[in-house]
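Q: My labmate handed me this sequence with no annotations at all. I'd like to see what the chain might look like in three dimensions before we decide whether it's worth expressing. Could you predict it?
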Amino acid sequence: MSTVNTVLGPVDTADLGFTLSHEHVGTNAAGLRHTYPEIIDRPALKEQAVAAFKEAYAEGVRTMFEVSTFDLGRDIELIREVSQESGINIIAATGNHLAVPRPFGDVPPSVIAKMYVREIEEGIEGTGIKAGIIKVASDRGGVTQPQEVVLRAAALTHNQTGIPISTHTWSPDRVGDQQVRILEEEGVD
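A: Here is what I predict for the chain of 189 residues:
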């Protein structure tokens, strides 16, 4: 029996049903909801998200990968509430989006991987809610140096935990090819 981490706990993969692979409950900016909470109407956002997810459930969707990372303003408690109230299994992400925090380019991938592994094995932001996917991103112009560090960290995390990696890429520049090369160099198959 194989399971996946959802925001409500482990779920047997045989019970996931129809799954959407790239969704967002709501995105903003890292730290915004803590620093300027008046900017975000959280009750309205929750109401809108629950309604949309209930509609998706009625159409047969049973699981969604919620790929908002901390730098996209991930609100892990909101994600859990939406899952509870909509009935949809939501799989949360660790990792990073395009705007990699500046210090990440100056530390080894192993340091970042430890943070990702913590979110998978212990939980996100002290909640006990465990990530079930690793999100990484690159865009126009190719993989930047900080993004390469994050890709290598994601690979190390995958190799240690077995958790899958989801990538955001820019197809006209064939950025996905660069991502695959880096992931393969780190032993991801």
